Amino acid sequence: MSNNPDTYYLRSEVSNSDLTALKELLHPRLQFGNREEAFRFGNLVDAIITEPARVNYYRFTVDDTQYTEDEFRHAQEMYKSLRMEARSDRFLAFVLENATTQKFMVNQSQQFEYCGFPFTLATRCKWDWWLEAALFGGDLKTTAATSQKEFEQMIDFFDWDRSRAWYMDIAHSDRDFIYAISKKNSMVFKKQITRGDAIYNAGREKYEELAFQYWCLNLCASESKVELAPALPSAAANQPQVNLCASESKVELAPALPSAAANQPQVNLCASKSKVELAPALPSAAANQPQVNLV
After folding, report:
1. What is the dihedral of CA 5, 12, 111, 140, to 10 degrees?
2. What pLDDT score does 254 carry?
3. Which domains, from first to last, does the chain contain?
4. Does pLDDT of 264 surpass 50?
5. Given this model, what pLDDT does residue 50 score?
6. pLDDT at residue number 47
């Protein structure tokens, strides 16, 4: 959980991080190393370079997160490497001197299409660097890669291509870039991205699928309760209530009455839509209880 006091993290629009959380829920995979520590140290480097006002160099803190002196020293060495790279990289030098940092954008009705099906979501993103005059921005990463080849492999493995396509489409920008600093040898790696290239196309394909799945779950959550009307006059009192939830499907059945000898409903819950089907009446309905089929 972030300790950043920025209200951006309290907003309700869908972010690339939300898509990551959904992917991990739907497609869990083995995690290598301590991801929480990696994020924690990445936040330190990110703050030193793009949000120095949050950093206290005397107490070794970023906001209320405590770091060690060695962690601060390591992060400062990585920043120094980035500044050294800027001496020979004129574009990076321009970015460090002129970019707006931690700029966030919101689109309350982002248009999507998945397999020909159109839908909308409210979306958000927060740029490490944004070049207002050029109308595009980029991302700062820390990485365990020790070569350009390893760095480019990580773009796909960690879905950095998805995040760049997500940001580009919210901003309607045609260019993007990533600068990554190695935690192992302080080397600086870079990648330029253009709308329509292989990285952008792969990233867009990834986010469109996850955005559609997010939209489906959100639709299920917004229509979370279906109440069944009384079946027959003789089935006088309680009928089952079905509650559909994005995180959990739960069926609550009211106690059957001795006089409810008529039809009992058969409920079929489907991932694509919720429907209620009434089974044919049985001669001895008093003994039979509702059947619930979760698909």
Report:
1. 20
2. 42
3. 7-219 (3.90.320.10), 231-295 (no CATH)
4. no
5. 97
6. 97
| CA neighbor of 124 nearest in space, from 84, 82, 165, 170 | 170
Kind plus residue range of the DSSP H or E element containing 179 = strand 175-182
CB 263 within 8 A of CB 231: yes
pLDDT of 193 > 50? The answer is yes
pLDDT of res. 178: 98
Supply the mean pLDDT for the chain.
Answer: 82
Owner of token pair 């020979």: 88
Tokens 């060495």 sit at which residue? 77
Strands 175-182, 136-143: pairing is parallel
Instruction: In whole angstroms, give the CA distance from residue 43 to residue 62.
Output: 8
Q: Cα–Cα distance between 174 and 295 in angstroms, integer?
A: 42
pTM for the structure as a whole = 0.74
Of 113-122, 184-193, 217-226, 239-248, which gets the smallest average pLDDT?
239-248
Distances (CA, A) of 77 to 66, 70, 188: 19, 11, 12
The angle subtended at Cα 236 by Cα 230 and Cα 241, nearest 5°, is: 45
C-alpha–C-alpha distance, residues 52 and 168, integer Å = 26
Q: How far apart are CA 77 and CA 56, in angstroms?
A: 17
166 in Cβ contact with 125 (< 8 Å): yes
Helices and strands (H, E) in the chain, number of each type:
7, 14
122 touches 27 (CB < 8 A):
no
Q: Tell me how far apart the alpha carbons of residues 24 and 30 are, in angstroms, rounded to a whole number.
A: 10
Whether the CB-CB separation of 260 and 242 falls below 8 Å is answered with no
Quickly list DSSP for 12-59. -SB-HHHHHHHHHHHS-----S-HHHHHHHHHHHHHHHH-GGGEETTT
What per-residue confidence (pLDDT) applies to 224? 61
